[in-house]
Amino acid sequence: METCESYNPGDLVEFSLEIPDRGQYRGSGLVEWINDGSVADKPAGIALHLFRLTAPAFSPSPGSTDPEGSPPPPPPEKEIDYTKSHLPESGALRDLLEKLLDMKVTVNQGKPVAISPETPLAIATYKKDNGSIKVVWLCDLKFVIYSGAALSVIPPETAESSLSSGEIPDNIRDNFQEVLNVSTELLNKPDRSRISLGDTVIVPAEIPAEIADIVSNPRMRLDFSVKIPGYGEGRVSLLEK
Questions:
Q1: pLDDT digits (tens, 9 = 90+) for 114-136
Q2: How far apart are CA 205 and CA 201, in angstroms?
Q3: Which DSSP string corresponds to the chain?
Q4: CATH 3.40.1550.10: which residues of the chain?
Q5: Taking the domain 82-240, which CATH number applies?
Q6: pTM of whole model > 0.70?
Q7: What are phi and psi of 162, to 5 degrees?
Q8: CA nearest 30: which of 221, 201, 149?
Q9: Could you say which residues of the chain have pLDDT below 50?
């Protein structure tokens, strides 16, 4: 059995959960210690900020059946009311990247970017004037490197070498930071509170609790795939508190 001493606060962990007649669920989350005050400086237990929980397709075990004879339908996708959100439509993201990178960019709905202890990615925050985080961008390593390289026409071979190593060179990191900075104009709308670029966390790293809260339970979320000619395709997820 795992104990409090097995994990440190901020650790990213992956887990699996077997549910009878339903299969194995897989997920990941951020560890927190719980202190009930009974013993000073000693945690009473651990909690997990859930980032991701993947459910298997329904596959009944031998001798069991789904009451309806088929798997339950997936929940309907949330409609995004862009008049009440800071999040941009895919066309707006495409237009900004095309202007910034001076090339044709394809933006489509994509798979969510998930936080995993073994997978490098960038987490960018956009904050309100009072310092609280309003929007979080989760950018996979491909989007980080391809967009950063394309901004100053760094050769695709250099980008692929960086991708293979899992390391982000300083020049590509600086360029990617500029992509994030310029993207602020996507999020600021005339009838919405003003926000500006905050901190950027490169995972693996300790993730602040405020970011973990938004990632685990966003008010709105958009997931995009972004294809940059000559480089490749990356993914970015936009989450709003």
A1: 888 778 999 999 999 999 999 99
A2: 7
A3: ---GGG--TT-EEEEEEEETTTEEEEEEEEEEEE--SSSTT--SEEEEEEEEEEPPPP-PPTT---TTSSPPPPPPPPPP-GGG-SPPPHHHHHHHHHHHHTS--EEEE-PPP---TTS-EEEEEEEETTS-EEEEEEEEHHHHHHHHHHHTT--HHHHHHHHHHT---HHHHHHHHHHHHHTHHHH--TTS--EEEEEEEEESS---HHHHHHHHS-SEEEEEEEEETTTEEEEEEEEE-
A4: 82-240
A5: 3.40.1550.10
A6: no
A7: -65, -40
A8: 201
A9: 1, 57-77
CA distance linking residue 12 with residue 31, whole number of Å: 6
Measured CA to CA, the distance from residue 172 to residue 147 in angstroms comes to 8
* 110, two tokens: 């994509």
Rounded Cα distance between 228 and 52, Å, is 27
- Judging by beta carbons within 10 Å of its beta carbon (0-12, 13-18, 19+), is residue 4 exposed, middle or buried? middle
Query: Alpha-carbon distance 163 to 159, whole Å?
Result: 6
